Amino acid sequence: MPKKVLYIDLSSGESWVEEKQELFEEWLGGTGVGIKLLMEECPAGVDPLSAQAPLILAIGPLNALFPAITKTVATFKSPLTGELGESYAGGRLALAMRFAGHEAIVIRGRAERPCYISINDADVKIKDATSIWGIDAQTTGMILREREPGVGRRSIIRIGPAGESLVRYASVVVDTYRHLGRLGIGAVFGSKNLKAMVISGTERVDVPDPRKYREVYNKLFRTAVQTDVMEKYHDIGTTININVLSYLKGLPTRNFQSSSYPEAEKISGEVLADEYLFRRLSCAGCPIGCIHVAALKTAFSPHHEFEVRKVSYDHEPIYSLGSNLGVTSAKGALELIDACERLGLDAISSGVILSWATEAYEHDLITPQETLGVPLQWNNIRSYVKALENIVKAPNEFYAALARGVEHASARYKGREFAMALAGNEVAGYHTGPASIVGQIVGVRHSHLDNAGYAIDQKAAKKQLDPEQMVEEIIKEDDFRGLFNCLVGCLFARGVYTEENILDALGAVGIAKTKEDLADLGRRIFEEKYRFKAREGFDLARVRVPRRFFETVSTLGMIEPQTVEDMLRMYREKRGWA
C-alpha cells in the first residue's frame, strides 16, 4: 500500500496528501519518520509556539495489525526545553490513523480563531471550536463524541485550559484515559488555536500473505497473554512499584528529600486496586488491559450528595502527585491526578513543580503574597488543586513562572539545588542510582523511557555493574528503543517483541529486514534526533544536575557527582563525540 502523509495548513485552511514511499522505506515509520519530517518542516531556531513550528503525528507499519503495537508518536519542538519534543500515546489514535489511511499527519500554521480538525478517511475539515474553547479536557471529549461520526474506529484528542493558556508542560488527552503528556505538546496545540482532533476511518488494511500473518500474530498473542512477560501490567499495574521502590530506597519523596516513604502503603497499587479500582481497559489492539481506572467519589454538597469521577492512574502520577508531595492517601493522589486531567497538565511536571514550590515556600524563598495566600504545604490537597488552577490562570508573576517549568521558576526564585529537572524536563519517579540520572540526561527527550536507566540501576543492585557497563547498557537501550518506537509499540511489550519477533512481524506485512538493518536504523534515528537537538542549541556538556541527587541515598547508595561526570564522559566517548 502507498505510504501517505496528510498535510494540514491551519493558516490557509487547506489540506493535501503526499505519497512518501522512500521516506518510509528508509525510516520505517513512527519516530523515524517523525524526526525526518520535523527536520524538514521546522525552521532552525523557530519559536516552538509560533505558527512556523510544525506538529507531526506518526504511526508505524505494524499498528492495528499486531497485539500491543498501539502507540502514536507526536514530534515537535518543545516549548519546555526549546529542543526536541516527542511524546507517545495509546488509546485508539493509531488505529484511527491506520484506518483513515494516513501514516503521518503534519500540521502547519495557526488558525485565526479556535478550531478543531475532523478527519474521516480522506475527508478533512477544519471546524469552529469557539464554543468549546475554555472547556475542560474531559467535557470537550464528551461534546465531540456527540458531534462527530466514526464510533468504533474513532479517536478524539484534545487539550484543556492549560494548553489554551500555553502552559509549557500542557498535555493532550487521548481518548479519555491516555495522553500525549510530556514536553508541552498541549501548548503547541494551543498556540495554533487547535482545541482538538477527531480522526476516524473505514479503509481496509491488507497483508500480502494472510497465512503467514496469522501464524506470526498468534505467536505474538500467545507470548503476550500466556506467559508472565506482561502479567504485572494487567494485575496491579505499574503502581506495584510504589511499595517496592520505597523498600529499595528508590522512591522520590517530598521533592527527593528522601527515597523511602513511610506512607507508601497508603498510596500503593495494592490499596488502589483493593479500594478504588473501577475497571481495566486496553488500548485498541492490545489484549492486556493495563489501563487502571479508579472510581473517585467526591462530595459536591454537605447533604451526602456525591459525584463519581473516573480517574486513570499509574506509577508516575502516583509518585509525582503522591509521595513527592507527601500525600498520605490514595484519594488525595487521585484528586490531584483528576485536577491535572481536567486542566490538561502533564502529571509528572506538575508534581515536580509543586514539590519544588513547597520546599521553596518552607525556605521563605516564596511568600504567601506571591502564592496569593495559598499555603503550599506537604499533603495539602486543597491548596495544591488551587495552585494548579492558578498555574493555568497565571494571575501573577509567580504562577506565570511556575507555568514555564521548574527550571525557569527556580532561576527566578532561587532553590535551583532542589529543582528536580534534567536538561529542562522534570524528572521521573526513580532515585535508583547514577544510570537513572545519566539516562535522563542523554536520552533524546530526557525521559525515563528513553533508555530505562532506572532499570539498569536495579539490575546493578542484584549483579555488580561498573559505570562503563552501565553506559554500554544505556547506549544499547537508546538505540533499541529508537527502532522499537518506529513500529510504534507499547514499551510494556518490549519483552514480547524480541529482535527475531520484530523481523517476523515485519516480514508478515511484506517488509524484509535483517538484524543488521534493525541495528543500523536504531543508531541512525538516535543520531538524527541529536542533530536536531544540537541544531536547536542542546549541549550535553552544559546540563545542570541538581545537587539534591547527591544528598539523598539511592537504591545503590549515595551517588557521587564524579560518577555521573565519568559516565557522561564515557558516553560521549562511546558515541564518538569526545
What can you tell me about this protein's structure?
This protein has 578 residues and is of the alpha+beta class. Helix 17 (434-442) crosses helix 22 (561-575). The chain contains 22 helices and 17 strands. Strand 7 and strand 8 form a beta hairpin. The strands form 4 sheets. Strands 2-1-6-3-4-5 form a 6-stranded mixed β-sheet, sandwiched between helices. A 6-stranded mixed β-sheet has the order 8-7-12-9-10-11, sandwiched between helices. It folds into 3 domains: 4-200, Aldehyde Ferredoxin Oxidoreductase,  A, domain 1; 255-416, Aldehyde Ferredoxin Oxidoreductase Protein, subunit A, domain 2, CATH 1.10.569; 432-494 and 514-575, Aldehyde Ferredoxin Oxidoreductase Protein, subunit A, domain 3, CATH 1.10.599.10. The two termini are 43 Å apart. The chain has helices at residues 21-27, 30-41, 93-100, 137-147, 161-164, 185-191, 210-226, 231-234, 241-247, 269-275, 315-320, 330-343, 347-362, 381-393, 397-402, 406-413, 434-442, 453-462, 467-484, 499-508, 515-535, 561-575, and strands at residues 4-9, 14-19, 55-58, 72-77, 84-89, 104-108, 115-120, 123-128, 154-158, 172-174, 178-180, 194-200, 277-281, 291-301, 305-313, 421-422, 425-426. The model has no long low-confidence stretch (mean pLDDT 96). Helices cover 40% and strands 16% of the residues. It is globular, with a radius of gyration of 22 Å.
